[in-house]
Design brief:
Length: 143
């Protein structure tokens, strides 16, 4: 890499890995000034295909909000919710650039079903757009 001060070549004097990426401390071979560079892996942008055919960028916040609403007033830690989100994102990254919103909803429901039955029923009621008590009864029978 070139020096940001004099554009001469640099050497790496220290390198540290972190979950966010790589931090490198560099020193110029000519002017001897030091500076730090950061490298972050580029995440693949995922597009969500909605039921009506629209496409929008994947939003971690939307997934988190949906899970938080379903788990509200339940004995479920934020760490468990974040773990679910990370699992979902890993699966999405391996699936390609476009994923149907239905697929994400099913992934969320499967994880909630294993984690907490009440949160699962809450989420399913919104996801499956329940019209009456019969819909609730069917999901409760499932569980």
């Amino acid at each position: 890499m070139k020096c940001v001060f004099c554009t001469f070549n640099t050497k790496v004097t220290d390198k540290r890995e972190s979950p966010e990426g790589t931090r490198r401390r560099r020193e110029c071979l000519k002017c001897k000034k030091r500076f730090t560079t950061y490298e972050k892996p580029e995440k693949k942008e995922i597009m969500i295909v909605k039921k009506d055919g629209r496409r929008e960028k994947y939003s971690r916040d939307k997934v988190r909000n949906g899970l938080m609403r379903a788990c509200e007033k339940r004995p479920i830690s934020i760490d468990k919710i974040d773990k679910i989100i990370n699992e979902i994102e890993e699966k999405l990254a391996s699936r390609g650039k476009e994923v149907k919103s239905e697929r994400i909803g099913k992934m969320m429901m499967n994880r909630l079903k294993r984690l907490d039955k009440i949160a699962y029923v809450r989420f399913a009621s919104v996801y499956k757009d329940f019209k009456d008590i019969k819909d609730f009864k069917e999901v409760i029978k499932e569980v």
